[in-house]
Amino acid sequence: MDNRLRILKDVAMMFKDSGIRSVTMEHISTELGISKRTLYEIFSDKDDLVKQVIEEGVKAHKEFCTKAIETSENVIEAIFKIGQLNVEMYHKINPIFFDDLRKFHSNIFKKIQEKDGIKDISITKSLFEIGIKDGLFSSDLNIEIVNIFIHKVFDFIYEDELKVFQNQDLTNSILLPYFNGICTQKGKDLINKYLDIFNFYK
Q1: What span, in angstroms and rounded, lies between the C-alpha atoms of 57 and 89?
Q2: What is the pLDDT along the chain (202 residues), one digit of tens a residue?
Q3: CA nearest 143: which of 129, 154, 133?
């Protein structure tokens, strides 16, 4: 692992534990045993560091999702695997991280929200394409619309107003009705099957 990736990995853990604002460049330098000069040679400023941390996280998440699709019997199972990972990851991140990202690195936060920004929506698009081909999703879906919408749904779920609700409540009230609505009966049967296997969002 090169120096840049090692720094990004370690800083990502710091951000997840303590948020972004409290983890200063000086703190990073001290904790990792590298000079501030070296740090600024690799990253132009903290904003650049935050951006690269998130980009590496997105890259790692995409690799997991790709593997989940390749090793699953069907896309419904893959969706449950990815969903389970997302929930586990979310619970490991200090909520301050998201607040700091919105307040102090708003330009990066906006790029995450943009269709062609940092966020990669190609994985979910491929899931819908495969699901339609395999008869699990309705054949008359407009994939572009459905794909954009599902990411908007996930963004909404993590809004401050919904933090008071349990994962199971969010799943039962938002995610399951949506996926059942776009699935064929074959797809719905698989959802019920994997709900018992994964204990999804509990």
Answers
A1: 11
A2: 689 999 999 999 999 999 999 999 999 999 999 999 999 999 999 999 999 999 999 899 999 999 999 999 999 999 999 988 888 888 889 989 989 999 999 999 888 877 556 777 899 999 999 999 999 999 999 999 999 999 888 888 777 677 778 777 888 899 999 999 999 999 999 999 999 888 654 4
A3: 129
Are 68 and 127 spatial neighbours (Cβ–Cβ below 8 Å)? no
Residue listed under structure tokens 């039962």: 172
Angle at which helix 3-18 crosses helix 46-71, to 10 degrees, equals 90
Rounded (5°) CA angle 123-127-131: 170
User: What residue segments make up the domains of the chain, in order of their start?
Assistant: 61-198
> In DSSP terms, which residues pair with 137 in a beta bridge?
183
Q: Report d(CA 69, CA 64) in Å as an integer.
A: 9
CA–CA separation, 145 vs 125, rounded Å?
10
The closest of 59, 62, 41, 54 to 11, measured between CA atoms, is 54
- What angle do helix axes 143-157 and 122-133 make, rounded to 10 degrees? 130
CATH topology of domain 61-198: Tetracycline Repressor; domain 2 (1.10.357)
3-state secondary structure of 123: helix
In angstroms, what CA-CA distances link 149 with 14, 32, 145, 173? Answer: 32, 40, 6, 16
User: What pTM was estimated for this model as a whole?
Assistant: 0.86
